[in-house]
């Protein structure tokens, strides 16, 4: 921001929101990374840690919302300030969801653990997670820098994640068809893959919110989509 | 419809609203001091236009040019063109009293005449010859008080003094007085700055209702009030018109940095 408020405590309130969002982002990132690590290494202890961390994000979201509402009531923010506060509320909700998805992945570790996971699938999941985490990390950097060009870039990159998710989906189906004993772990992995893919979507949502916060306009055009799982296995006529 | 399309449609709609008053290259001087610099600002019919800006920015000065209230100030000179329905209001042939009947005004502090409520409202219509009989005058008084949302509160004490009313009631009495001469435009100079929040809400509700029949220009220091009551907002700074925009746009995403800083309470 180029200038500061005449009422300096107003600046403090906005800074508080920004700081809490950054903290939430860090926690969410950590949770997602750990959940995938736990899944790939079948590390139940790490999974448990992720599960117990979710409450931190839930609390942070609640506190951000409360502070935002008090600030709106007290300051009656206008223009960029109003967008900043509304953006904080929305981003906090997105990050809370990201945490939930990490937690859900962690919960499945125990179920997958018993049956073991084919190495090749683990690699695919890891790659998917790397991309999603990179999206998340970069979007959090953009939140700090407000680099609009970068926000647009992130938004346009979500189709990479979608494409990998689609190919993982096919692979998991193949494993299930090969041996019915694979169905239980593969179904869990399918949900895990979906969780990770959703994280990419949330990162994209955050990028759009940041774009709106900075410009007051919605980003133009449809976001690219390459999630074709809805038609996988459809009978070809 | 996409958001952009909606916005465009709205703008188009706003652009088709006929202009009630036009200000073209309006400059105002108080003696040697220049208070307004070539302001081009139009007032659309049945629209509430809010004028905002820091103290001394020229918003009240501009408001006063619209019904030639500046004529009463010594050494005040207005240049440029201001029209009402296309007619130059600074034309020497214009009768200023008649102009002010068409362009009424409500001031910051409620200023009822030290007379009865009835006389406060009936004074204008009487001197302008708008009512021929007592019955007609009664009707104008009732209708004006109704329009100002004051009728139910004062109908049983019309002959008590107007100055005995509460501040909010006095201000609505002044609005009733302005409305009584059936003006086309009502100018309001910070009409709520001396009122409590409830009285303010009543005046704002009234502005909303009056918009159907009148064109309103309001000067306000309250950003929230401008955002609540107006459809168009004009931002003044150091005697210049900085930005004029749809109110919704003005308070969410203004084009000009100075508007942005002002409405957000930032250092420029």
TrEMBL record, chain A:
Region described as Disordered: 217-237
Keyword Cytoplasm recorded: yes
InterPro entries according to UniProt: PhoU (IPR028366), PhoU-like_sf (IPR038078), PhoU_dom (IPR026022)
A Pfam short name: PhoU
Highest taxon in the source lineage: Bacteria
Keyword line: Cytoplasm, Phosphate transport, Transport
Start and end residues of each PhoU domain: 21-109, 125-209
Alphabetical GO biological process terms: intracellular phosphate ion homeostasis; negative regulation of phosphate metabolic process; phosphate ion transport
Any one of the GO CC terms: cytoplasm
Localization per record: Cytoplasm
Quaternary assembly: Homodimer.
Function: Plays a role in the regulation of phosphate uptake.
Family: Belongs to the PhoU family.
PANTHER family to which the protein is assigned, alphabetical: PHOSPHATE-SPECIFIC TRANSPORT SYSTEM ACCESSORY PROTEIN PHOU
Protein name, per record: Phosphate-specific transport system accessory protein PhoU
Species for this entry: Rhizobium subbaraonis
Taxonomic classification: Bacteria, Pseudomonadati, Pseudomonadota, Alphaproteobacteria, Hyphomicrobiales
Automatic annotation (TrEMBL), chain B:
Source domain of life: Bacteria
Gene Ontology terms, MF aspect: ATP binding; ATP hydrolysis activity; phosphate transmembrane transporter activity
Keyword hit for Transport: yes
Cellular component GO terms, alphabetical: membrane
Keywords recorded for this protein, A-Z: ATP-binding, Nucleotide-binding, Phosphate transport, Transport
Domain ABC transporter, residue spans: 21-263
A biological process from GO: phosphate ion transmembrane transport
Record keyword ATP-binding present: yes
UniProt-listed SUPFAM superfamilies: P-loop containing nucleoside triphosphate hydrolases
PROSITE patterns linked to this entry: ABC_TRANSPORTER_1, ABC_TRANSPORTER_2
Family: Belongs to the ABC transporter superfamily.
NCBIfam families registered for this protein in UniProt: 3a0107s01c2
Protein name stated in the entry: Phosphate ABC transporter ATP-binding protein (PhoT family)
Lineage: Bacteria, Pseudomonadati, Pseudomonadota, Alphaproteobacteria, Hyphomicrobiales
């Amino acid at each position: 921001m180029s200038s500061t408020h005449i009422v300096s405590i107003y600046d403090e309130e906005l800074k508080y929101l920004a700081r809490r969002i950054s903290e939430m982002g860090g926690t969410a990132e950590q949770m997602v990374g750990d959940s995938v690590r736990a899944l790939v290494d079948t590390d139940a202890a790490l999974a448990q840690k992720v599960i117990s961390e979710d409450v931190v994000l839930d609390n942070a979201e609640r506190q951000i919302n409360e502070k935002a509402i008090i600030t709106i009531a007290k300051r009656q923010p206008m223009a960029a300030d109003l967008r900043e506060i509304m953006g904080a509320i929305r981003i906090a909700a997105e990050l809370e969801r990201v945490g939930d998805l990490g937690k859900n992945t962690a919960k499945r570790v125990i179920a997958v653990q018993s049956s073991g996971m084919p190495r090749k699938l683990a690699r695919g999941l890891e790659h998917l997670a790397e991309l999603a985490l990179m999206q998340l990390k970069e979007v959090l950097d953009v939140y700090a820098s407000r680099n609009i060009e970068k926000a647009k870039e992130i938004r346009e990159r979500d189709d990479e994640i979608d494409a990998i998710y689609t190919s993982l989906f096919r692979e998991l189906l193949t494993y299930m068809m090969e041996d019915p004993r694979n169905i239980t772990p593969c179904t869990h992995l399918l949900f895990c893959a979906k969780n990770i893919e959703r994280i990419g979507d949330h990162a994209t949502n955050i990028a759009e919110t940041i774009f709106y916060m900075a410009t007051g306009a919605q980003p133009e055009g449809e976001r690219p989509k390459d999630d074709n799982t809805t038609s996988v296995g459809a009978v070809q006529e | 419809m996409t958001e952009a399309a909606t916005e465009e449609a709205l703008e188009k709609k706003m652009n088709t609203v006929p202009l009630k008053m036009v200000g073209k290259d309006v400059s105002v001087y108080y003696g040697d001091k220049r208070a307004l610099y070539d302001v081009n600002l139009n007032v659309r019919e049945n629209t509430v236009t809010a004028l905002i800006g820091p103290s001394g920015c020229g918003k009240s000065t501009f408001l006063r040019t619209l019904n030639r209230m500046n004529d009463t100030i010594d050494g005040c000179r207005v240049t440029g063109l201001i029209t009402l329905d296309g007619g130059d209001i600074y034309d020497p042939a214009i009768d200023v009293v008649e102009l002010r009947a068409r362009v009424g005004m409500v001031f910051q502090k409620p200023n009822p005449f030290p007379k009865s409520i009835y006389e406060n409202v009936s004074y204008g219509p009487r001197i302008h010859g708008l009512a021929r009989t007592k019955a007609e005058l009664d009707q104008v008084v009732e209708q004006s008080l109704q329009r100002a949302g004051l009728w139910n509160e004062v109908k049983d004490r019309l002959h008590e003094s107007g100055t005995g009313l509460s501040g909010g009631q006095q201000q609505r009495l002044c609005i009733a007085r302005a409305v009584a001469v059936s003006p086309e435009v009502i100018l309001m100079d910070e009409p709520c700055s001396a009122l409590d929040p409830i009285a303010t809400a009543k005046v704002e509700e009234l502005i909303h209702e009056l918009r159907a029949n009148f064109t309103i220009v309001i000067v306000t220091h309250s950003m929230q009030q401008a955002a609540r009551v107006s459809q168009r907002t004009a931002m003044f700074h150091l005697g210049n018109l900085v930005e004029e925009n749809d109110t919704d746009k003005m308070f969410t995403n203004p084009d000009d940095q100075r508007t942005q800083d002002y409405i957000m309470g930032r250092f420029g």
